[in-house]
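Letters spell out the chain; the tokens describe the backbone. To illustrate:

===
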Amino acid sequence: MGTKEYKIGAQKYFAYGLGNFASQLSWTMVSTYLAVFYTDVFGLTTGAVAILFLVAKIWDGINDPMMGEIMEHTHSKWGRFRPYIVIGAPLLVIFTILTFTVPNFDSPYKLIYAYVTYIGLGMIYTMTNVPYQGLPAVMTTDGGKINRLMTSQMMGMVLGMIILNLGTLPLVNLLGGGDQKIGYQYTAALFAVLALPMFWYCAAQCKETVVVHKEHQVPVKESMKLILGNRNLMMVVLYTIANMTAMMGRIGVAVYFYMYVVKDFRFITLFMMMQMLVGAVVMPFSPRVIERHGKKAVVYFSLIVQAAALLIMAFGPKTNIPFLIVCHILYGSGYIAGPCGSIMLCESLDEMDLKTGVRTDGTAFSLNGLGSKIGSAVGSALGVAVIGWFGYKAGGEITPTVSLGINVAVNIVPACIFLLGIIPVAIYSLDEKKVPEIRKQLKIRNEKREEELVTGLETVEI
């Protein structure tokens, strides 16, 4: 592995954050509105949607690690990761539009269409987003820069989610002219097309400087064995699964809560984005807070505060707008821990690299990306299943039992999962004070490797 640092200034941080902003214009559209689109517009039952989400993630369990291995063994003048962002971005546009299109098919064929388009979208998202998520680990070995890059990534995510939630329902109504089928399709198309140049700009600006030579790579089987045997790295993946199951699972069914429990349509958009607005305010302080208090302490704070906010909301007055606003502000403050998981993943990779001499960053980030998608899908599937168990049917009566089920799915279940996320974080044992020394030793070793490689090449030429 060789490393040649280059300056990372405001433009690079902006470009990298823009990549996650672009991702949200596709994936947040899916995670936030696809469940309600499938049940209320496409015409699927809640049970069919829940099974679809889970089947898609089973395939992701195979597809994501495959993508990681492909990335790791790619060698091009653009690097190992960036080519897939460039190629995947236009395909993401196509599949986002297809996923939010209602075909003129009979019911069995409509369900097949939903499987093909949603699973295809997930595969293309993997192709585009897994290399994007891994870029900080190959852009620099400076811990402070990695922290700021991860914060930029999370800021892009939060701002993208805010814009999407502000614009989606108004655009569905405006572009559809009362026809939700057309409204969702045109809105998805607009967001996806806008994302395309953002992805390409990110890929052009975020140069890869950490180079892994073929001579220092290992077969797929050994790579997976090293990753699965890295306890700290696996704890990060488990934390990601718990965090995303709670957060994205809630987002996937939250619209039901605001529509049918709160019953104040004036504030649906506000509540869908309130925690993200708070996140956009607190997240710029993340690097300083993390450096001062440590990543584990910040994550503990986040998980406890978010769980508490949801439980307060669940058992409080659900039609009291000021009360709900306060709960959402409290919930949003947990976004301060946004960059922590990705930073801990990079540190686990560095520790493994120093111990084993092997860097499996592509596979590691694909595995963590898989954890993120599993969390999102399981959360959404669980949320839809819960409201179905309590009797929710599209267009049906919202009885007290159905209302209770929506409250359980949107608030109580995610709160419990947030608290479960404390367990893997507690098991994670890498001492943060040792990380600078690990990276210092890696730099010395990599420079020596580079010199040996150059000397070897010169000897061959002679």
